[in-house]
């Protein structure tokens, strides 16, 4: 893609900004997403050690994971409202400072309860990463560019998860496991001044230009909360994220434990090999954005783009069904990697669907509501996983994560069918 020049006309309320500057901003969103997921992965990578030091069963570890997800669910709506009302520059900076403080405090925990409380605190801030990021992408990129932009910044989740495994294992073996929490916290603190000096909210002149250019095709007025809740498309994205969210969370929070306890990898082997499935997942986010952009260039309607990308990737997620049934660790790694690739491919287009169906001024609230749905399932699923693993095995969990992406995709197109059909014959190239 060629960066848009400052003088190029934009649509859908996209604010004029220097072509290079907006890519720097996107780079910062990518970087904070990497940091965000290093923070999240610290506990999952250290899970074998933490369970021993803090005397946690799988069920109790599931409660720690659920505490973080409960924090995410609790913070979604306040963070979304904060981004809409105060702006992303201040809102995202505040969110990063808030969760970085919680990350650092985890180094002081001595019990499972203390760890769960600090994870809850961290979750209330980390949900702001996506509320803010989605608004920035919608503001700086045209509709036909957004899925790629979302894919780039969302791929930071897999990059962070990939880097986290060898980095955290190295820190644990060299300095002790508590040092890993302190490093993660410091990364967020280093990011904050870069964001503050590089990102700017649109000036009055830029807002006036955007308003003038939209004079012949003005956006609809801001939707009241009660009307937003009554919108079927909101429930579509909420249901979609409810089913898709816990899938990648399972890979983030449980795969290191699975490889350690079931596949009998040592912590050193985890450091050397545990990042491989996450690397395959990295490519999924980029591929999901690229595929959507390529289909758009071929003249496909937005409806067709989402159908092709989301159904194909959700079907590919079924590969995880075979993981517990193969004796080969190599094939198991490959299947996990394929499933993570497919789920990130799907996620890029799931988040892209929000920008399809809602205005930029509503995206903070919409992302917040969908995050509540994801947080609710993310709260339930770790608890269920802990019970299933302790009482049965990982097999029923892999069965669930194999089918949930397809259920989420079906729900999206059933509930948002009418809104998408309105754009079925219109190519994004004409937007």
Task: Give an overview of the whole structure.
By secondary structure, the protein is mostly helical. It has one domain (19-430): MFS general substrate transporter like domains (Growth Hormone, Chain: A, Up-down Bundle), CATH 1.20.1250.20. Helices cover 78% and strands 0% of the residues. It has helices spanning 19-45, 47-53, 58-86, 88-105, 112-126, 128-140, 143-154, 156-175, 177-198, 204-213, 225-230, 232-261, 267-273, 276-297, 302-316, 329-357, 363-391, 395-415, 417-421. Helix 8 packs across helix 9 (177-198) and helix 12 packs antiparallel against helix 18 (395-415). Mean pLDDT is 79; it is low at 1-16, 204-217 and 425-431. It is found in: Membrane. It is a multi-pass membrane protein. This is Hexuronate transporter. The chain crosses the membrane at residues 21-38, 86-105, 148-171, 177-198, 234-255, 275-295, 366-388, 394-416.
Brief descriptors of the model:
single chain, 431 residues, mainly alpha, Growth Hormone, Chain: A, 19 helices, 78% helix, disordered N terminus, disordered C terminus
What assembly state would you assign to the polypeptide chains in this entry? single chain
Name the average pLDDT.
79
In total, the number of strands is 0
Any idea what the CATH architecture is? Up-down Bundle
How would a crystallographer describe the biggest sheet?
none
CATH topology tier name? Growth Hormone, Chain: A
Query: End-to-end distance, in Å?
Result: 16 Å
Rg (CA only): 21 Å
């Amino acid at each position: 893609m060629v960066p848009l020049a400052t003088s190029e006309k934009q649509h859908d309320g996209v604010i004029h900004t220097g072509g290079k500057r907006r890519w720097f901003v996107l780079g910062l969103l990518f970087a904070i997403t990497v940091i965000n997921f290093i923070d999240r992965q610290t506990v999952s990578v250290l899970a074998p050690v933490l369970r021993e030091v803090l005397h946690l069963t799988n069920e109790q570890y599931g409660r720690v994971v659920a505490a973080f997800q409960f924090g995410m669910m609790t913070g979604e709506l306040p963070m979304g409202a904060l981004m809409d009302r105060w702006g992303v520059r201040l809102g995202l900076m505040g969110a990063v400072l808030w969760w970085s403080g919680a990350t650092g405090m985890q180094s002081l925990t001595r019990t499972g309860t203390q760890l769960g409380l600090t994870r809850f605190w961290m979750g209330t801030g980390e949900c702001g990463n996506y509320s803010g990021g989605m608004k920035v992408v919608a503001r700086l990129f045209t509709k036909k560019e957004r899925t790629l932009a979302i894919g780039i910044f969302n791929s930071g989740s897999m990059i962070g998860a990939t880097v986290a495994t060898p980095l955290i294992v190295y820190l644990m073996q060299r300095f002790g496991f508590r040092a890993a929490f302190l490093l993660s916290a410091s990364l967020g603190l280093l990011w904050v001044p870069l964001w503050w000096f590089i990102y700017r909210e649109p000036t009055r002149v830029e807002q006036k230009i955007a308003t003038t250019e939209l004079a012949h095709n003005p956006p609809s007025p801001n939707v009241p909360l009660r009307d937003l809740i009554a919108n079927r498309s909101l429930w579509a994205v909420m249901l979609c994220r409810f089913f898709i969210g816990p899938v990648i969370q399972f890979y983030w929070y449980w795969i290191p434990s699975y490889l350690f306890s079931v596949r009998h990898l040592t912590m050193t082997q985890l450091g050397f090999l545990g990042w491989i499935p996450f690397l395959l997942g990295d490519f999924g986010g980029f591929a999901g954005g690229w595929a959507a952009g390529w289909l758009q260039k071929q003249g496909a309607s937005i409806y067709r783009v989402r159908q092709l990308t989301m159904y194909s990737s959700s079907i590919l997620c079924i590969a995880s069904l075979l993981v517990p049934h193969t004796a080969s660790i190599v094939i198991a790694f490959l299947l996990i990697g394929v499933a993570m690739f497919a789920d990130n491919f799907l996620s890029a287009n799931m988040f892209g669907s929000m920008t399809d169906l809602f205005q930029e001024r509503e995206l903070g609230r919409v992302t917040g509501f969908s995050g509540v749905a994801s947080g609710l399932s993310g709260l339930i699923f770790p608890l269920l996983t802990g019970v299933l693993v302790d009482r049965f095995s990982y097999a029923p969990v892999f069965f669930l994560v194999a089918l949930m992406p397809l259920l989420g995709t079906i729900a999206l197109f059933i509930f948002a069918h009418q809104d998408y059909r309105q754009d079925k014959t219109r190519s994004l190239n004409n937007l």
